[in-house]
């Protein structure tokens, strides 16, 4: 698959089943994550792989976090914990901010780019992915499990596996470029881009 096709055809998986990524695929995906644009090469990101039985350990931490809130209905707690095991594997992305003149916003942007690289590298390898918010990301049990230090934040996690063949991925409408992109004219005005977005295969 060429790079542009990879970008245009990546979709968020609607249901992930086995097989999950192989160890070699995870290594390649992590390698791609580390090529995210990175101002001053600060490496303001870390990654934690969760797969196999360790997913249950994660589910237990989420349950502890949800129960600590005190008044969540049991189905809500169960649903939050179930997110840990709904894919064969996941990679959590942590914004590991560094003391620097580079702003936190730029460092977090690099971490987000790393997460997108994970999704794209997975797609290039034939592995389906879904970038999801981490349940209860600010809770002590979840932060401790991922080793999130003070000043660090969980950007999200990317679930990895195989798209279930019987669960459709709804079509994605092309975004009219004129609504989101403009070109600066010499007179200082912004002219909306008129050309159509590339066809999404
Ligand atoms: C930071 C971040 C967190 C997200 N969290 C969730 C989530 O918790 N649940 C969800 O259904 N989609 C979540 N999404 C959106 C999906 O990853 C996906 O981008 C969206 O469903 C559009 O699908 P597409 O990628 O196929 O265009 C999140 C996206 C981002 C960037």
Automatic annotation (TrEMBL):
It is an enzyme of class 1 (oxidoreductase). Keywords: Flavoprotein, FMN, NAD, NADP, Oxidoreductase. Coiled coil: none annotated. One of its GO terms (molecular function) is oxidoreductase activity. Binds 1 FMN per subunit. The keyword Cytoplasm does not apply. Pfam families: Nitroreductase. Residues 18-161 form the Nitroreductase domain. Transmembrane segments: none annotated. Its EC number is 1.-.-.-. FMN binds at residues 10-12, 39, 131-133. Its cofactor is FMN. Belongs to the nitroreductase family. This is Putative NAD(P)H nitroreductase. It comes from Frankia canadensis. The lineage of its organism: Bacteria, Bacillati, Actinomycetota, Actinomycetes, Frankiales.
